[in-house]
Amino acid sequence: MHYELTDQQSYTQVHLKYPRNYLNYRTTHLILVNTVSSESKPRFIPPQVRERLKIIEEKMKLVKHRLVIMSGKGGVGKSFIASNLAVALASLNLKVGLMDVDFHGPSAPKMLGLKGRKLIVTTEGIEPAVGPLGVKVMSLDFLLPSSDTPVVWRGPLKTTAIMQFVSDVNWGELDFLVIDMPPGTGDEALTVAQYLPKVDGALFVTIPSEISIEVVGRSIAFAKQVGIRPIGVIENMSGFYCPKCKTLYKLLGKGTGKEIAEKYNIEFLGEIPLDPRIAEANDSGTPITLAYPESEVSKRIINISKRVHEMIKSTTEQV
Ligand SMILES: Nc1ncnc2c1ncn2[C@@H]1O[C@H](COP(=O)(O)OP(=O)(O)OP(=O)(O)O)[C@@H](O)[C@H]1O
Ligand SMILES: [Mg+2]
Question: Mind listing the pLDDT tens digit for each residue in 47-68?
Fold first, then answer.
């Protein structure tokens, strides 16, 4: 099954077509484009979008917490952290889903050993793929005809696809829906902020470099602006510990995660070093938390997942 674009001439009306007997969804995107602003909710919502939002709201009533993994920067390990955090949360006996909204570079399915998986569509909706420890996964990767198919989408299509990822997927009851974001502060992040019921928190992934302070800072400011609470900073790729000579090499420069966390008054959740086993695990589709549970990296990820669970539980219970 794959998305079929049938009306590319018209920017205002684009069909996203599922198999014939299932969805045949049409929406007026230009209105959406006009309503997208940095406000947390658009002022005018067209009736057909309102209908879909109702379904989203109903579906999300079964999902206790929504957590986004963001960064202003690309290639810093967002998908690696999102996938492993999802598995780590599942290892705490929580029901977890992972929604990959990185349409131009979906990578979570590969990291969870789900590459090439085809989705089952029933009259009830789309069954998400099921990964390690029962983590339910939805990604555009499952809908593309081949792995080298480029996704050439403008913002409105992404908005519609994200809404469908929520409204048409049978997520069922979940404790956490982890959302793996693309880099930056574009349409995907805005859609998640505007059209999903309250997101409980955002984790920001950074790497040791002066440049990342500014770039990640921008995405923290963006999250605040659209009403998503920044809850923590994780510094990934922070140094390489040579097992032979027992020396820590700061390959990418000095750490900046702590500095970012202090500057924006959010919690620093820790450092994850460069480790060839991470790359190997990501490529082989077995998350490092399962492939090397005794490794320092896995221990840190499990600790981060415990802390995140604690933080989100305590703040949502206060509300
Ligand atoms: N700590 C680490 N040690 C070694 N390799 C790592 C580490 N973190 C991530 N990687 C590798 O770096 C690459 C980029 O990671 P990942 O795809 O998770 O980044 P991303 O931020 O999601 O990228 P994008 O912005 O494209 O979505 C992957 O090949 C991953 O296996
Ligand atoms: Mg990614």
Answer: 888 899 999 999 999 999 999 9
